[in-house]
Amino acid sequence: MLPSDATGPASPAAADDPGVDAPLATAAESDAARRARAALAGVAPEPGAAKPDPILTAAGIRRAFGGIVAVDVERVEVQRGSITALIGPNGAGKTTFFNLLTGFDKPDTGTWSFDGKDMAGVAPHRMAARGMVRTFQLTKSLTKLPVIENMKLGATGQKGEKWWNGLIPGTWKQQEAEIEARADQLLQRFKLDHMRDEYAGALSGGQRKLLEMARALMTDPTLVMLDEPMAGVNPALKQSLNAHVKGLRDEGMTVLFVEHDMDMVHDISDWVIVMAEGRVIAEGTPDDISSNPAVIDAYLGMHQGRSLLEDL
Predict the structure, then answer these.
(1) Of 17, 120, 156, 214, which cross-links 190 as Cys (Cβ 3.0–4.6 Å)?
(2) Per-residue b/e over 15-45, b at no fewer than 16 CB within 10 Å?
(3) Which phi and psi (to 5°) does residue 250 adopt?
(4) 278: alpha, beta or left, given left = phi > 0 and alpha = psi -120 to 50?
(5) pTM of this structure
(6) Going by C-beta distance under 8 Å and a sequence separation of 6 or more, which residues neighbour residue 184?
(7) What is the DSSP letter of 23?
(8) Are 94 and 87 a contacting pair, CB within 8 Å?
(9) Which is it for strands 83-87 and 279-284: parallel, antiparallel or unpaired?
């Protein structure tokens, strides 16, 4: 079944979805894409493969809920400056793994580091301040606040957040103006500037995805983790989101994203990690993964390509 944004009449906000007129990615690769793929060219296409310059490393991550093991990852490394896709069937443990890495859940065992620093026990807001930010499968915009206010909340180190500073406007006014100017720049980049003063609840599903991505950039991150950025997004807006994700890599950021849209995965990924039943079962380039028997089995079953009657 198609996502709701792709069927039925569009809402007024959806009809005005930004990004449709954004320039599409060209056939020519950017310098950043060439560098990322060159760095990964010598990496073995196997689970837990070591990367030349990993920005994120996880080892022995395990999480069980009662008797069900949701995540049991022996080792994963994410190459710096690349776009890495994390894929797998429903229930593979992808979002749970994301939650463990970003501090929204705690693993039973395991260690993980970001940019060489141990992240065990670090709160999510402190991870964001260090440059590791994420978006959510279900968007977390504050619907009763204007879009611009949602953006400003994403900035870190705001002086006015301390109540005693809040009593003295002179201590935070200039910083507030700088934050708002940065927010306006990002809204213009993501073509949401026409919705600047509207409530976030008035945005379409696709626009909320863009707002989440734009707000994540308010922290000036080095690693952006996107949880199903294409879920519920209409096809025209998907092209814009693809271009924006590639733009993050072109600006020197690393991207790790969970996705079911295999066309997007093949289009923008430098490397793909595949999970099934909580484990990493394959890694490699998009071409490696598309022909990997273990991946085909995980998605389609061992009988794919032949009649089930053959075994009768």
Answers:
(1) 214
(2) eebbbeebeebeeeeeebbeebbebbeebeb
(3) -65, -25
(4) left
(5) 0.81
(6) 148, 193, 196
(7) P
(8) yes
(9) unpaired
Contact present, 264 and 242 (Cβ < 8 Å): yes
Which residue matches tokens 């611009």?
148
DSSP 87-156: E-STTSSHHHHHHHHTTSS--SEEEEEETTEE-TT--HHHHHHHTEEE--SS----TTSBHHHHHHHT-S
Helix axes 205-216, 173-189, angle to 10 degrees: 130
Answer for the pair 205, 233: CB distance below 8 angstroms, yes or no. yes
| Site of tokens 């990615």 | 25
Q: Mind listing the pLDDT tens digit of every residue in the chain (312 residues)? A: 333 333 333 333 443 444 434 433 344 678 988 999 999 999 999 999 999 999 999 999 999 998 899 999 999 999 999 999 999 988 899 999 999 999 999 999 999 999 999 998 899 989 988 999 998 877 888 889 999 999 998 887 777 777 777 777 777 788 788 888 999 999 999 889 999 999 999 998 888 888 988 998 998 899 999 998 887 777 777 888 888 899 999 999 999 999 888 888 998 999 999 999 999 999 999 999 988 888 888 876 655 555 434 544
Q: In whole angstroms, what is the distance from residue 312 CA to residue 306 CA?
A: 13
Q: What are the angstrom distances between the C-alpha of 304 and each of 290, 292, 294? A: 14, 13, 12
At the topology level, CATH places domain 30-140+221-299 in Rossmann fold (3.40.50)
One-letter amino acid of 280:
V
Domain with CATH 3.40.50.300 in the chain: 30-140+221-299
Helix axes 205-216, 235-250, angle to 10 degrees: 10
CA angle 91/96/102 to nearest 5° reads 155
Q: Give residues with Cβ within 8 angstroms of 203, minimum separation 6.
A: 13, 141, 147, 192, 195, 211
